[in-house]
Design a protein that fits this description.
Elements lengths: L9 H12 L23 E4 L12 H9 L4 E8 L5 E3 L22 E5 L2 E5 L7 H4 L22 E2 H9 L6 E6 L2 H7 L8 H11 L9 H5 L4 E3 L2 H8 L6 E5 L13 H4 L2 H7 L5 E4 L1 H4 L2 E2 L2 E2 L5 H7 L3 E2 L19 H12 L3 E4 L2 H11 L8 H16 L2
Parallel strand pairs: 1-2, 1-14, 2-7, 8-9, 9-10, 10-13
Antiparallel strand pairs: 2-3, 3-6, 4-5, 11-12
Bound molecules: 2-acetamido-2-deoxy-beta-D-glucopyranose (NAG) (3 copies).
Length: about 400
């Protein structure tokens, strides 16, 4: 059957309405003095990874508005810098996978090869484009199995535009920006005032009133977690702001981009004791917390228990509803995965591509406060694994 106008999804109409009605976000927020519904703090945080990017191309205004509509506690973003030093929301250092850059003839000669985190990468790099040039591109969906209808509709946004989306929300919505690839950015982008990428990042947050320790009065009004894989960046920004920071941890085989440390070094008890002077939590790749084999979960590591023993929260990444990403233990039910991580592993937050599903899960299926008693959790996990082994 040929699609008719009646079949244009309602969501798209809503989005177009919102986006066209509000093409520019007034800076600073015009609603910052309103009394808003506070952020929930009694259960694990629902962190909308790159916005609601399971549905809408990542890190776009539409993806963030959708995540807020779906009940996210935090909207998450990756901050990179343009050639002329503008801070933008974009995940990859190259534009190839999530924009239409390859169809722009005027940029055909802009492809380069640079070393990025210990390997050579070829593509169109964000650091070779001015903000004005980046704004001429359109963002597209990263995965072929996700909805392609929004490709070409939305632009790359700046860090400031992202902040305005959070501040303009009708309830309190936190932000969760990452200092992305700081070694690479500081090598390729220079600011006239001699400041570093991390300084510009913090300047932007302070300019819009983001400050204060975790759970302080300021924090509750404008909740923020600063995240980075680079420990030296986290230590550096600790001198500039007391806002809470999260240390991201990659897969077992990945070494840190700045200190060239292994996974095992940065998850040792000594290191957790050290880094807990600077951060309030860890953001580990979830398969390092519960390793997998043949797409089944194996016995969990003690990372969550040890992090909690150091008074560190744990916010693993990334939860995705699709079959491609669900381990077989969850019998293709994303709620079963959320249930396992929230109630059995006892995490304190989840980075998800589907903030709406985490919200539904927390509101409708498991409305209980978190209970992250690490020792009892390990017993439960052991029981679960034993049950699976019988299959
Ligand atoms: C990247 O390429 C350059 C030039 O060919 C080479 O000198 C360098 O060793 C390469 N780096 C890595 C990490 O492979
Ligand atoms: C990083 O550490 C590994 C393991 O010690 C070492 O083999 C490698 O040469 C180091 N890389 C750099 C750039 O220092
Ligand atoms: C958390 O769970 C443990 C083990 O099931 C239980 O003993 C404890 O009472 C629970 N704590 C709270 C605050 O519910």
């Amino acid at each position: 059957m040929r699609p008719s106008i009646c079949h244009i999804p309602f969501l798209l109409l809503l989005l177009l309405h919102v986006v066209i009605a509000r093409p520019f976000f007034p800076l600073p927020s015009k609603t910052s003095n309103e009394v808003k519904k506070p952020i929930q703090t009694f259960r694990p945080y629902n962190i909308a990874h790159r916005g609601s990017n399971g549905e809408i191309p990542e890190e776009t205004t539409a993806a963030y508005l959708r995540a807020i509509e779906e009940g996210a506690d935090f909207i998450e973003t990756d901050i990179l810098a343009s050639k002329d030093g503008a801070l933008i929301c974009f995940h990859d250092v190259t534009l190839d996978d999530t924009t239409d850059v390859s169809s722009h003839k005027e940029f055909a000669n802009r492809r380069r090869t640079y070393e990025v985190e210990w390997s050579n990468v070829t593509g169109w790099f964000v650091v070779d484009f001015t903000l004005d040039e980046l704004k001429t591109l359109k963002v597209k969906q990263r995965y072929s199995f996700r909805d392609q209808q929004y490709n070409g509709k939305f632009s790359i946004i700046t860090f400031e535009e992202f902040i305005s989306i959070a501040l303009d929300a009708s309830r309190t919505v936190g932000i969760y920006p990452e200092i992305k690839d700081p070694i690479f950015i500081n090598k390729h982008v220079k600011w006239a005032d001699g400041k570093k990428f991390e300084d510009k990042f913090v300047d932007t947050l302070l300019k819009y009133g983001y400050k204060g320790q975790y759970m302080s009065e300021y924090w509750l009004k404008q909740p923020l977690f600063i995240q980075s894989f680079a420990p030296t960046s986290l230590v550096h920004v600790s001198k500039l702001t007391d806002s809470p920071k999260i240390f991201l941890i990659d897969d077992f085989i990945v070494r840190t981009q700045d200190t060239n440390q292994s996974y095992w070094e940065i998850t040792s008890d000594d290191y957790l004791a050290y880094i807990s002077n600077y951060v309030v939590g860890l953001g580990p790749w979830k398969d390092t917390v519960v390793p997998t084999a043949n797409n089944y979960l194996m016995a969990p590591t003690d990372l969550v228990a040890r992090a909690h023993a150091h008074n560190l929260q744990v916010h693993p990444y990334t939860y995705r509803n699709e079959n491609q990403f669900l381990h077989f233990n969850f019998h293709q039910d994303p709620y079963a995965e959320y249930d396992f991580w929230i109630n059995t592993v006892g995490v304190d937050g989840l980075f998800t591509d589907f903030a709406g599903s985490v919200h539904q899960y927390q509101e409708l299926i498991s409305p209980h406060p978190k209970n992250a008693t690490a020792n009892s959790l390990l017993v439960k996990i052991a029981q679960m694994i034993a049950a699976y082994e019988g299959h």
